[in-house]
Fold each of these.
Amino acid sequence: MNTRMNLSNVFALKEILKYTSREGYAVGAFSARYTTMIRSILRAGQKCASPVIIQISQKEINKYQVAIDKFSHEFYTAIIEEGIGIPIALHLDHTKDFAIIERAIEADFTSVMIDASDKPLEENIAVTREVVKYAHDRSVSVEAELGRISTTDFIETDSDGQLYTDPREAKIFIEETGADALAVSVGTAHGPYEGKQPNIDYQRLQAIRAAVKVPLVLHGASGVPADMIMRAIHLDGGGVSKVNIATDLEAALLKSLGYDTSLTDARLSALDNEMLNKAAEAVEETVIQKIEQFLGSQGHAADFNCIRGDRE
Ligand SMILES: [Zn+2]
């Protein structure tokens, strides 16, 4: 496809997170569980002049029956058709399967996440290192996970059981693997909190931040109060740089349609225009809310000298 080469505003993860710590904001990574959500996320980013990351995980690809090629094609087509000039990245979220990572990279994803966090440290290091080598050879960034982020919905990941990230292990892990970003387990969970109180171990987060040089990623942000996430972004010495938002975005879409359970990508795409417009509006609004409420990334497209047309 090689579409990426022509677009100066499409970045690898490492590059799109570059200014976050220095400028005190985080970039939202929005899960487009339905391909049609891609446009709404891009439009929201454009309205806020904010960098955004669009992502999908291995489990989401299966559950919503999303084709990787089609997803990527829609991403690149939307950028051109909508005249999107903000910095953007196309990210493969939680993936365990090397074959899917290969397919995503072939389809011009600009970063991938290898999640071998259910394996013992040594094995996690070995698997992650292999992915890093493969991805870096192709100018693609890698996010990896250490510790285990618990879950209530098993949509993004199937690993459960909370295991907090150990700062000393994190240092070793990043040095040994060369991963570009680290997903940390500090108290948040995937899926709705369902009566449980989200809790972030800020001291641990600060210790991890001090121990590793790469940007940190907060998963499971849906349902966490905005002030808690803001504190995680604005910690002394730098906080998290990427915040993943999945559950809240799909919930907004389904609510706008009056549905209470998920559809497949194909079933959603087959809805009439009036329904699709309603869904698009709800997704766009939710993304803008997240950007303004806690990410603080509005206006930060200007950190990048990449607005389409500006270069060359
Ligand atoms: Zn996650």
Amino acid sequence: MVMWIGALVPTGPELAGSTSPRHGAPSIGDITESGLAELMERAAEVPWVAEALDGFTNCRATCDHFAFCLGGNPANKFFETGRFDTTETTHCRTSKKLLMKGVFQHVAGPRKR
Ligand code: SF4
């Protein structure tokens, strides 16, 4: 998304307007100064984006739900933990993991006594 000031936020529109003590405003640059293609081309080099990509890698390496979830929402990770490279959050536990648990229980059918 592009904020009114021209800041490009490539993921997690909820991040727009927030700031991180370590990374500052989570944008990848000002679209009025650089083109969209140029900003996206070097997005992975922006420290907070690199940290978010590490978060996806960490999820892929540690979570059985990665194929369904694909590593979660960087905004939720940031707002819950203050970091982008974490894995499990309350959000993913309640919206992904418990959802899948319920689906599997439903598919398995009622327990027989
Ligand atoms: S469910 Fe949570 S821990 Fe698992 S991949 Fe998604 S965000 Fe990561």
Amino acid sequence: MDQRAQIAGIFDRAASTYDRVGVELFGPVADELVSALAPQAGERALDIGCGRGAMLLRLAAAIGPTGTAAGIDLAPQMVAAAQTDAATAGLTVDVSVGDAQEPDFPAKSFDVVASSLVLFFLPDPAAALAAWRRLLVPGGRLGVSTFGPLPPAWQEVDAVFEPCLPPQLRDARTTGTRGPFGSDAGVEQLLTQAGFQDVRTRTTTVAVRFDDADHWHRWTWSVGQRAMWEHVPAGDRDAVRAAAGERLERCRDGGGRIGFDQQVRHTYGRC
Ligand SMILES: C[S@@+](CC[C@H](N)C(=O)[O-])C[C@H]1O[C@@H](n2cnc3c(N)ncnc32)[C@H](O)[C@@H]1O
């Protein structure tokens, strides 16, 4: 199966619970991007890989009915969920299935292009950024979020999946120290080479916390990490879960809650 179909399948199967299991991650990441990009009433913004709309809905609220908040995602179930969530919130969005690698919009059709926790899924991030730049008007703003490093104790939790994973999934959540996503400079260089100016990074930390090991388990099935579970043979999943449970005990914070502090790299540029 082609890589895009695999990714769409994972997120389609996750869509019904994605960002709905009581763990704060995508909202705080979107808050930072939207705050820095400062969309104005009447502007046109595009959220690339919008998922269930954590950022898209915030963009729509800022832009209001006189502008356009558009979103694309590869996974049809994510698109449907984003549409429903926007309607429930009383917001108007223009959301459709589309490929972030080469979004199908006319040149210079947006004031703001944003993408949260998506770029590292793409087969050619540099080419995608060049395509995204073409969608911006002169002076238009780009913001992308990617994952920073994980604490060592949490890397140990994720490592329980490793024996079952194909090579492309071994680097958990595509962070790590290699490649452009391993440093601020690496991501900044991607933007600079795509022709963006005034490229800069702001790093934030999101405290990701779980009530208990069961809560962690539900969350992992609701996000991209679901791909890891799907690679574990059904008969081995209880053992992997038990091994993770032991390691989770080493990841309690001062208040006794299980979790990790996720560094998030927000990289900004101007067209
Ligand atoms: C980690 S989720 C982030 C979703 C959303 N931006 C958020 O912050 O909640 C990654 C999203 O990227 C989408 N995605 C991955 N590859 C894509 C592609 N080539 N084109 C469009 N969307 C893609 C997935 O379907 C998924 O919804």
